[in-house]
Amino acid sequence: MHRANAAARLFVRTVLLTVLLTTVMTACSGLSDGVQPSPADVFLERADDLKRGRLLFTGTCGGYCHPTNAGNRDSPYLFDCQWKNGGSDGDLFASISAGIPGSRMPQYGGKLPERDQDIWRLIAYIRSKSECQSP
Question: Are 77 and 71 a contacting pair, CB within 8 Å?
């Protein structure tokens, strides 16, 4: 009887450990070095979203401030590797949605037709045309 109880406890421990490890691995799936994937990554894979990002950029960003070709202009060229306010997707999202104090960059958070989704489409478009290998 003692052996049966020990075997049952070992079985329960094994099952609990398996469940725990599965839960941890599932929670961590999709993460690379602890960094969560950017929402812009989804839009990089879809031609319609990149087109919308391009149209938003051309009509909103490039139409007034940011050049689409490298050159001398008072607003930064966004397709090179030089970023004044951080170059990660999260940094870009913050700059676009909240604006940049003390600059001409207004806030666009909640102002574009599809709100945050359009900001992520803009970021995906910028990434798709970037001259950098990675952000």
Answer: yes
